[in-house]
Amino acid sequence: MRKIIAFMHISLDGFVAGPNGEMDWITVDEEIFDYVGQRISQGDTALYGRVTYQMMESYWPTAADQPKASKHDREHSEWYKKVHKVVLSRTMPATGLTNTTIIPDNLSASINAIKQQPGADILVFGSPTATHSLIQQNLIDGFWLFVNPIVLGQGIPLFINIKDQIKLKLLNVHPFTSGVTELNYLVNPW
User: Fold this and answer.
1) What pLDDT is attached to residue 190?
2) Is 170 helix (H, G, I), strand (E, B) or coil?
3) Which site in 8, 47, 70, 102 is 20 to 30 Å from 122, CA atoms measured?
């Protein structure tokens, strides 16, 4: 069965965005881009909330076509165009979309049906609201947390309204020269 892996940048105090969704505190560089590119190339499905999907859709399909496109922009643009996208949204119309499935309701049944299909891991990018919904329904199988060396003090937390403990097994730790550390966890491994 396929796994759902949440791929998130997080502050040391557990926030995935500032109070108004700010992400200007996230550290990214070529070392992180190369590492992430290798990791996500194994995935064939990306899962987003509506806001993150619309942000991605406004940039990535044509990012590689820009005259000054970076190596990361070219590589991620190509990956984004071929990967199947799943969007959790009650308001987004499901028409006119390329290689995209909209899940408006019945989250657990819809996600479990996708997990039963053949393919690689399903990667959740950012999308705090969607991630909260997936966590609350025990649909996340792993976390790739990129812990940024900053304490925000306030913002949008990764974990909210958790009813039961979530047991995690640390699979990998990868430090970057920028001070970011990736923590790779498996959920409920026992």
Assistant:
1) 64
2) strand
3) 70
Band of pLDDT at residue 188, cut at 50, 70 and 90: confident
Who's near 29: CB < 8 A, 6+ residues apart? 176, 178
Q: Which of 146, 144, 185, 147 is nearest to 42 (CA)?
A: 144
pLDDT at 96: 82
**Cβ(131)–Cβ(140) below 8 Å:** yes
Residue 101, beta-bridge partner list: 86
Residue 31 pLDDT > 70, yes or no? yes
State the CB neighbour count (10 A cutoff) for residue 87: 25
Query: What single DSSP character describes residue 160?
Result: -
Which CATH code for domain 4-187? 3.40.430.10
CA 95, CA 99: separation in Å to the nearest integer? Answer: 11
How confident is the model over 130-161, as pLDDT tens digits? 999 999 999 999 999 999 999 999 999 999 98
Which residues lie closer than 8 Å to 176 by C-beta, 6 or more apart?
Answer: 29, 31, 32, 35, 182
What DSSP state is assigned to residue 102?
E
| 3 Cβ neighbours under 8 A, 6+ residues apart | 115, 121, 122, 141, 142
Query: Rounded CA gap, 189 and 185, in Å?
Result: 9
